[in-house]
Specification:
Layout lengths: L13 H19 L5 H45 L2
Length: 84
């Protein structure tokens, strides 16, 4: 993943994992009209947790860094404007 780092292993709590499994089950039923078994739910949840969550986490960090950089630039501009 960017910046030469391996993907982080993000661990969900039991409550978060249960919610993710319920979302997966609901998605399959609502979108595909199919029931999905617990093994398949667990496999998909593991895929999300191991492969997708770190990507989303890193994207959020990148977005936060970009926001922080813009705010720091604004602060610098405001300082320069006030400087006599």
């Amino acid at each position: 993943m960017g910046k030469g780092k391996e993907l982080l292993q993000i661990k969900l709590s039991d409550e978060q994992r249960e919610k993710l499994n319920a979302e997966i089950k609901a998605f399959y039923f609502d979108e595909r009209g199919e029931e999905i078994g617990i093994v398949e739910q667990m496999q998909l949840a593991e895929l999300f947790e191991m492969k997708l969550a770190p990507i989303i986490y890193n994207k959020a960090l990148d977005d936060a860094k970009a926001w922080y950089t813009r705010m720091a630039d604004n602060l610098s501009y405001d300082y320069d404007t006030l400087y006599k």
